[in-house]
Hints:
By secondary structure, the protein is mainly beta. It contains three helices and 24 strands.
Amino acid sequence: MCSKEEPNFYFWKSMDGSSTLGEYFDPAVDCSDVVDRVPDATDGFYWIYLKEVKTVVKAWCDVTTDGGGYLLVARKNDSVTWTVPSSKETVDPFGKPHWSSIFGNMKMLDIRFQFSTTSEFKDTKAHWSFRLANKRRFRELLIRDRGGCTEHNPGIGDIAFVKDLQIEKIVNRNFHCSLFGGHLSPSIGWGMMNKCLQTPCAGFAFLPGISLRLDDSGSFSYSAKDNFTRSGIWHSSTAFMGCSHGKCCACYGPKGGTDNYCLKNCTAINGGKVAKQVVTWVWIRSSLPKRVWRKCIDFTITGQDGKVENYRLDEETGLKEKVNENV
C-alpha cells in the first residue's frame, strides 16, 4: 500500500510489514543492496534499477554464495560456447541458455563461473570467481594486450585474485588472465563476444546475417597454481569450460584441488575429469554487500604467546591489515 510517512512524502509499504525492496515499485540498486537491506532475503528474482540506462529490470540474485550480491548474467546447457546467443531477457537459472545483454553497462567487481554435470547446483564440479583489480563494464569483459592478456590471445584480464568457491578460499593472487581465444578481428571472436554482452546476437563466432561459423575457440578457465599467471587455450588449467581449437568440453579436478587438471584440446591430466555435457552459470557482482562485511571487518587474533592483536579487513581486497592502536 502507499503510506504517507512525512508531510508531502509517500512510501510503499507491504500490508504485513515485510520489505518491499526488490519489487518493481521499489527496485534495489543491485543484488548486494538486497543483501544489505533485506535480512531474510532468499535467492530469486528481484527488480533492480540500472542507473546506467535509467530503467528497472528483473534479475536473478544469489544472496548467499560468498556473502551474496551476485547477479545471474548467463546460463548454458552444454560445453559449446560459440552457439550461445544473447538477448535482452532476464536469465533464469533453470531456463533457456543465453547471455543477458541488458546488464552490459553494469560495472562489475567480481565475475563468477559455476558448472555442473546436471541442471542442479548441488552437482557443481567447479566454481570460482575473479576479483578484478579495477572495475569495468560487463560489455568490456574480454580485454587484449593488457591486464596480463596477450596481443594474440585476449581474455578476462586485470584479475587481482582467484577464489575457489567450493572451499571458499583465495587460491591464486598471481593469476592475471583467463585466456578466451585467439585474436582474429575486433569484429569476431572476443570482440564480438563483448558486443554480444550489450546487443543481442546469435553467438560470438558469427557475423550478423551470416550462418558460417568464423571462430573455433572460446573458453573460461583458471589456475590455482601460484606460479601460473594465465590459463586456457595454450596453458593448462585447474578448471576449464568451453572450446579450444574446435574441441569443446568441461574439465575439472577434485574438490579443493590446487593442481592443473586440464590441457588444451580437452585432455585431462593429474587425475582430472572431462565432461561434454555440463550446465554453466555466469554471475557478476557490482559491489560487496556491506552488511556481511560489517560482521567481520574488525577482528582479533591471539598468538601462540597469548598476545591479542587487532586486525581489520580491507573491504576491496579482502586482505587483513594490523590495526595500529597508537594512532
